[in-house]
Amino acid sequence: MVGYKSKVAEQIHLPSRTKRERALEEAGYNVFNLDSEDVFIDLLTDSGTGAMSDEQWAALFRGDEAYAGSRSFGELEDAVADVMGFSHVVPAHQGRGAENVLYGSLVEEGDVVPNNTHFDTTRAHIANQGADPVDCPVDDARDPAADGPFKGNTSLERARAVVEEHGPERVPVVVQTITNNSAAGQPVSVENSRAVREFADEIGASFVIDACRFAENAYFVTEREDEFADASVADVAREQLGLADAVVMSGKKDGLANAGGFVATDSDALYESCKQRAILYEGFPTYGGMAGRDIAAMAVGLREAVDEAYVADRVGQVQELADALESVGVPIYTPAGGHAVYLDAGAFLSHLEPEAFPGQALVCELYREGGVRGVELGSFAFPDTDRPELVRLALPRRTYHREHLEHVAETAAAVLERREDVSGLEIEEEPEMAEIRHFTATLEPT
Ligand code: F0G
């Protein structure tokens, strides 16, 4: 049994309905344009938005701000070795900085990179190298109603098809993202990671794990994979990550930090090339774009992330939100993910066609109804793909309490009650790059 008591309090408030209506209109029906002060419960992301522990705050004060040879970096190296099992660490300002460093070292123009599902920034960095990022999810991953313990797994069949089509020489790296954020935060089994390891060996490719949510993934493994029923989360994490040649990490998730990221590997050659590229883009390799204090806090956070009680509470809270939503009849993607509950907006607003952006309409209604901010991951965010219309409600770590979850469920229930009256949206203005339009485009009700 574990719990948290507050040592610092931040007041939040629910603006009046009139204020929310106005804020939504001024934001062009895009919640990325809202001021966070106008948001009551912010479930936009779990990235960098969590509460640090008192131990992490203490570490901040002890951070060593030396340009070279920072003691805080030594603490990070120790934490990465203990928790993840890698001897070399190249720090970066956040996950996508680490992606730039790693994929810039591993991937060349004309290459093809299979991944269970590429997160947006991963896809962009691989494309930026002139390579082709290919998603290889299992069949059920995009079915919100299918049951299954590891819907985040890589489809080896799809990955093999990629190699058959392009030839092994064009596939220098196989990536696996755990948990699979772009497939509703679903976990990946150790068995599946082992199979990807073997596959990578067969084709002479490197195996990279995007470890952003590795601890949440390890927790699911202890719950759902028989072989690991008696294993600790920390042991599973090391076992699974140890299968990879390198991990790429955003410390803003399971580093329990507000900033930071890194690449870790045992390969001397990969370390060397990442280090040189990091100097160019991130900073000297003992700080990598982070303040020494942020490195120190992340080193503590990594250790806390594999604490059994912490991670059971964390994933348990996401499940609690899923249960609360289901109990009032809200259709959700099942099973719930590790960091977020994904609402099935296609079923929720079944009278709206994809062209009317049901997901974005639902996001707007959740804000209008209860000041709750989620994010659309459907046809607005991913034009021209056949993804389900999902809305992600991501829980920041150690931040909200039961009454907040109840408010979210009550808000969704109230929208459900008047769902037939919810109208669709159309785009008013959008940027040139369609792939990132959901961050800045403005819309209006139809
Ligand atoms: N990989 C995965 C699987 C992610 O979920 C993210 C970020 C990144 C890489 C990039 O890390 O943000 O530190 O640069 N995901 C956030 C989200 C933004 O809201 O899901 P970053």
Structural features:
446 residues; alpha/beta; 2 domains; 16 helices; 14 strands; 41% helix; binds ligand F0G; PyrdxlP-dep_Trfase; PyrdxlP-dep_Trfase_major; EC 4.1.99.1; lyase; Tryptophanase/L-cysteine desulfhydrase, PLP-dependent
Q: Mind explaining what this structure looks like?
A:
The chain is of the alpha/beta class and 446 residues long. The protein folds into 2 domains: 17-39 and 308-445, Aspartate Aminotransferase, domain 1, CATH 3.90.1150.10; 54-305, Aspartate Aminotransferase, domain 2 (3-Layer(aba) Sandwich). It is built from 16 helices and 14 strands. The strands form 5 sheets. Strands 2-8-7-6-5 form a 5-stranded mixed sheet, sandwiched between helices. The longest helix has 20 residues, at 308-327. The protein is globular. The N and C termini lie far apart (49 Å). Ligand F0G binds at residues 45, 47, 94-96, 119, 121-122, 177, 181, 210, 212, 250, 252, 261. GO terms for molecular function: tryptophanase activity. It comes from Natronococcus amylolyticus DSM 10524. Residues 42-410 form the Aromatic amino acid beta-eliminating lyase/threonine aldolase domain.
